[in-house]
């Protein structure tokens, strides 16, 4: 979430009205219904993890051991097992 200066994005009249209720502090304005993003969608993290997990699975089915994958991806063997199990589904 990025911060924007209210006076840069809102009409001055609206800023003055908001200041009557909430002056000089941070105010969170939630997204409209239906515009929500799930975790990792905005910055690409969700897609990057999906690609990584698919890569781990392909390496595994092509003969890499769980130990090798754990070392290569800096994850625990338990995490590698969880990823492999999820990709099989």
UniProtKB/TrEMBL annotation:
- Say which domain of life the source belongs to: Bacteria
Alphabetical list of NCBIfam families matching this protein: CD3324_fam
Which PANTHER family does the UniProt record give?
A: MU-LIKE PROPHAGE FLUMU PROTEIN C (PTHR37812)
This protein's name: CD3324 family protein
């Amino acid at each position: 979430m990025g911060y924007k200066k209210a006076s840069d994005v809102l009409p001055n009249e609206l800023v003055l009205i908001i200041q009557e209720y909430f002056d000089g502090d941070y105010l969170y304005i939630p997204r409209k219904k239906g515009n929500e993003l799930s975790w990792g969608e905005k910055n690409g993290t969700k897609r990057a993890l999906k690609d990584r997990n698919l890569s781990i699975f392909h390496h595994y089915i092509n003969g890499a051991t769980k130990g090798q994958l754990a070392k290569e991806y800096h994850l625990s063997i338990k995490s590698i097992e969880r990823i492999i199990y999820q990709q099989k589904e």
